[in-house]
């Protein structure tokens, strides 16, 4: 299966991907085998392999699906933002919604820790998502006329990623509000 063809999933493939997303996020990629994904989705292992080809491709599809939903949320908030500052802060605003129920932090960072092989298709999805976010910050800052936009984009990226790390390690902390406040101060400075 071509990982990029997620819009045309069969009902069985959609069940597989939904089960994989829940299991991979809750238990980790390496801890979950295709037997469990097949069982949870109500299909045979053969069907899983027919639809996705391999566990590597299933992992990449899982990450790509999350990436598409994340980007859609951020892009919507970015488009609807009334000011240049609000456009830059859109990824922080998206975190409020995105992190509801997320107890293990960032699925992309978690996956990156489990996928050390540079050639793993899932690792490439994660790295592309992080690069996209950095470029979104940079592009928004340049478009808004902020000085030292590239340096500021990296600082914002660090704040944003810090929120995701703290979600898994310090669940009682309101890291989103703290990071958004710090980002606002950076933009005003």
TrEMBL record:
PROSITE patterns: HTH_TETR_2. Gene3D superfamilies: Tetracycline Repressor, domain 2 (1.10.357.10). One of its GO terms (molecular function) is transcription cis-regulatory region binding. Keywords: DNA-binding. Residues 33-52 bind DNA. InterPro entries: Homeodomain-like_sf, HTH-type_TetR-like_transc_reg, HTH_TetR, Tet_transcr_reg_TetR-rel_C_sf. This is AcrR family transcriptional regulator. It comes from Nocardioides marinisabuli.
